[in-house]
Every structure is written in C-alpha cells, then in structure tokens.
Amino acid sequence: MELEYFLLTVLFFVIGLILGSFFNVLIYRLPEGKSIVLLGSYCPSCKRSIRMIENIPLFSYIFLGGKCAGCKAKISLQYPLIEFITAVAAMTLWHTLIYPFSTEPHAWWDYIPLALQFATLLILIPIFVIDYYHYIIPDSISLSGLVIGIAASFIPGGITPLQMVIGILAGGGILVLIGLFGEYILRKKDAMGGGDIKLMAFIGAVWGWKIAILAIILGALFGSVIGVLLILVRILPKDHRIPFGPFLGVGVWVAFLLGDALLLAYFSFIESLVQM
Predict the structure, then answer these.
(1) Reduced to 3 states, what is the DSSP secondary structure of residue 67?
(2) Backbone phi and psi for residue 241, each to the nearest 5 degrees, phi listed first
C-alpha cells in the first residue's frame, strides 16, 4: 500500500509538470489572443520551433542551462517555476482531495465532480499569473468552467443543482454587490472587475457557497494587508491598481486547505468573547 501511494504521488507530480507546461502556454498566448492548439511550441525570441526533447517540463530547462538551444536567449525562470508549482499543487491535491476519497469504494461517476474540483484549483495558477501581469481573467477559462460546473451539478456525488445555484449567487453575487457599492456610493468606477465576478461564480458552481464566501473574505484580507504593506514600503504608489484575481485564487486555496480549521478557530474565538 505504501509503495502504491508513493507511485501515485510521483504520478501526480508528473501530471502536474505536464499541466504546468500547458499552463505556461495559456499564460503566454491567451492574453495575446493566440491559439493554444494550432500553434506548436516555439522560442519567443527567435521563433524557432522547439523540439520534443527540448520541451520536457522542468528538466529541459535544467539541461539547456536556461537558454534556447537555437538563439541562446535566456528562458524566463517563470516557465520552470510554474511547472514546479503546478506539480507540487497536483501532488498536494492527490494527498488532501483524491486519496481520502479513494479509500472508500465509489462508482466511477463519483470521481467526475472530484476531477472538476481538482482541475478548478489547478487552473487558478495560470489565472493568478495572467491577472497579475495583464489585469484580465480570460472568459475562456472562467465561463467554460462555469458551464462545466453547472453541468456537473447534475451528476450524483458532487454538489446538487440547488447548491450550485446558491454557490453561483454567493460567489458572483457578493462581488456584484461590492462592485455596485463601490461604483454608486464610493463613486469608484470599475470597483469590481467583471473577470473577478465570473471567476467566483465559477468557483461557487464547483465548490459551493461556503468555499466561495470564505475565499472572498480571505482574498480581500490578503489583498488589503499586502497592498498596504507594499505602499508603506514604497514599492507601489498609493494610486496603483492591484489585481484582485491573484488574491481570490490564494483565498480559494486557503479556504480549501484550512477552511474548516479557520472557521472552527473563528467560532471558538466568538464563543470565548461571549463567555467573558
């Protein structure tokens, strides 16, 4: 059993490396409107097609010394980092999400909602980077995920259609209300980006209202703290716009990994205050 667990852990690490390589394609091409299917891999500097042996996730970067085999231009460190982070994330999800579920017998269709949850958490990685650099969350990701999440709610084993609807309203609806508050009361145009709303509607459809709401709270907290710190140390000017998507992505991950513990600690704290 231990050997099987180890081999599956390695397998998910390798799957993560492959997905990370694909995520690098999404990060580079989606903001520029380039095809992610019709175009093969090529060097951004010399446009030379990359051979298969040069396109092995993480390892090719090491073997090539971080340089293009053709023009010798430096390959951005972002590429191996995204691949490694995705591999670690996939391995973590195997341990925390899939393995506990697989210890009990289930029908094969029960794994479909689980696979969707797995994919949803991983796809937040390219969303994080794209929004950080370009201030956009591609509709091709969030709306496609939303449609798949709606369809998956009718498959037994995951959240129900009613939970899906409540999750969409909680995730996207709360951000709509925040945006309206900021636009009409605080007089701030575009107080909440449409991409953030679609993203959290997608998260709500897949994970339900609890994860969606906790992720929004955590994302706002992380964004506020980090934004203030960056301004205080004068890394960012006061009027600099900070994308919310990356913080929402981190909030979703923290809500998934530590949500129960955070809620338990919060309610214990409230109970202790009441008893004082």
Answers:
(1) strand
(2) -90, 125
**266 Cβ partners below 8 Å, 6+ apart?**
none
Residues contacting residue 264 through CB under 8 Å, at least 6 positions apart: none
Helix (H, G, I), strand (E, B) or coil at 235: coil
Question: What per-residue confidence (pLDDT) applies to 167?
Answer: 97
Task: Determine the residue type at 170.
Answer: A
Contact 54, 60 (CB under 8 A): yes
Torsion of CA 66, 55, 37, 18, to 10 degrees: -100
pLDDT of residue 191: 59
Question: Token pair of 44, please?
Answer: 């951004």
Closest CA to 122 of 32, 19, 193, 241: 19
**What are 42's strand-pairing partners?**
49
Count of other CB atoms within 10 angstroms of residue 249: 25
Residue owning tokens 């980090």: 226
The DSSP annotation for 9-40 comes to HHHHHHHHHHHHHHHHHHHHHGGGT--SSSSP
CB distance 130 to 27 below 8 Å? yes
DSSP class of 108: G
Asked if pLDDT for residue 171 goes beyond 70, the answer is yes
**For the chain, domain boundaries:** 1-105, 136-276
At 41 the three-state DSSP class reads coil
d(C-alpha 252, C-alpha 242), whole Å: 18
Question: Which residues are bridge partners to 48 per DSSP?
Answer: none
Q: For residue 98, what is the DSSP state?
A: I
Task: Using DSSP, state whether 42 is helix, strand or coil.
Answer: strand
pLDDT digits (tens, 9 = 90+) for 230-250: 777 766 666 667 889 999 999
Provide the token pair at 33. 């409107």
Instruction: Give me the mean pLDDT over the 63-88 stretch.
Output: 91
For 175, the token pair is 């951000």
